[in-house]
Amino acid sequence: MPPRMTPQTIAVLLALAQDFDHDHYGFDLLRQTGLQSGTVYPALIRLETHGLVRHFWEEIDPTQAGRPRRRLYRLTASGIELARQLQGRQTGQGVGALA
């Protein structure tokens, strides 16, 4: 059963779906959606709890990169399927279909 699909949760899911075969990090999703961190991160947790998103840590040496590792997010197959369904419903509102 999918999580409660508020407009904000849908925005996060669709932002992840824009480039679903690549990893996204939180700040990137904040910029894409225009939402605040107090909205995006709880939405990611809900999506992950329902098996629609998975997270993992970036594999870098923080000392070499000069920054901390990022927590990366990616849609699961179920997340991609739900995003396609949602985009199909919103096509009339200017949201394109996933490739």
Automatic annotation (TrEMBL):
Tell me the domain of life.
Answer: Bacteria
Task: Name a Pfam family for this protein.
Answer: PadR
Start and end residues of each Transcription regulator PadR N-terminal domain: 34-81
Name of the protein in question: Transcriptional regulator PadR-like family protein
Name the species this protein comes from: Deinococcus reticulitermitis
